[in-house]
Each structure stands twice: as C-alpha cells, then as structure tokens.
Amino acid sequence: MVDIDSESIRGQILANAKGFKTSWISLGQALYTVWKDKMYKEWGYETFETYTAKEIGIRKDTAIKLLRSYSFLEKEEPLYLKKDYNDVAETAKVPTYQSVDVLRLARDKKDLSREDYSSIKKGVLEMGKDEQTVKKDLTSFMKQRQELEPEEAWQKRKATLVRRFLTTLKSLMSEAKRSNMISVATLKDTDQLVSKLETEIS
Known about the structure:
single chain; mainly alpha
C-alpha cells in the first residue's frame, strides 16, 4: 500500500527542487534590469559588481554568468522563458545557469556545426545536462571537427590546384588551336580532360 505521507513529501521535494533550479532565471531577469537601467547607482553603488557583492553576496563572475545566461535565453530562446514551459518541465530537466552559459559560448564557436549546436542545445534545455557534461559534449564535438579539418583542408588545396591547372591548360589549348601546332586528335583528348577536371571541382 502506498504511503500517502511519503508521496506528499516526495511531491513537495520535487516542487521545491524545481523552484530552486528555476529561481536563477527570476534572479537573472531582475539583475539584468538592474544592470541595464543602472539602478544600483540609485542605491549608492558605483558599479554593478559592488552592488551584487555587498548587497546580495554574489561574486562578480557568478553575477556576470547569471546576466549573460538570462540575456542569452531572452534573445535566443524567448519561448523557453514562458512560465507554462517551466510548469510542465521535469525537475531533473531544468538547466542550471552554468549549463546555459556553456550553451551561450557554444553558439559563438565558428567551428561548431549547426547540427552539433542543436544537439548541445537539446542537452541543456530539454535534458537538463549539468555544466561538466555539456562541456564534455562541446569538447567532443570540437575534437571531431578538428579531426575532419585536415581532410577538408586537403580537399580545398586539391580544388585550388585543379582550378589553376585548368586555367593554364585552357590557355595553352587556345594558343595551340591558333597556331595549329597540335593535332586535332590531341586537342580532342585535351578537351575531354578539361571536361573531367571541371567535373571534379563542380
């Protein structure tokens, strides 16, 4: 038989845990307003960092991460900030501000493909992966990308060489046709070679 009291406590813990995990979004939103409108100056603080450190006891790097993470969600994932989404999201799948900050950094990685970024975003916003796991995923994708780069670089060098060869070959063919110094059969074979080379770089 199910213990009603234990289930009630379980539900309360889940609710409290979700509130704890999502509270950074509300805090980030409020801090973003304070930072953007420089409200801290009205309260006697010269800088935002001084305000967060002295009045609410948050270190500079933590305050900056909160700001950047919330700002990122507001600009890039506004639908995520809707309250109804958080109401239905499983507690374990609610992301931390640290994970969102890693996602923000991943977005600016030029070497990261759209597919890889989408995978990381899903891990953060839908699966609630923690910061360290997201960092490992990002490192793994970046490593795979770096391993692919030598092949891509070789392909680019090949294409460049073939284009240069084609340009030179076409120029020599034009000269040969004008001078009538090469047989028709050879010119025909050379035309076929040009077509093959053009196919390789198309």
